[in-house]
Amino acid sequence: MNLRHIILLTLGTIFLAACNMTLAADVTPPPGYVPPTPMPTLGPLFPNQAPDVENGKDIYTEKCAACHGQAGLGDGEQSKDLPVSVIPIGLPEFSRDATPAQWYATVTQGNLERFMPP
Fold it and tell me: What is the mean pLDDT of residues 25-45?
């Protein structure tokens, strides 16, 4: 090997070693930094016990019928006061598109973008 190859090899080694150095372990947040709030964890995807039709009917009448209506067509007495249209959950065309897990998650966690409380 001649001197030129040795110099190029040495410079290449120094360059690669310099690229490997980082200051990642020495990261200090700027003054006034506020860490982001953690996202809330989602609840379970399925209920703990088997559904009860009579209990579900009572819950629907108490919490859902005011907006969705008795038949689930989105024509409840409070639906006209909302800035968004109420989804007609009673229509088969709509209700078939969601899985039972999606229904359960929507009912238990709500959908605040569409003004639906949990």
Answer: 79
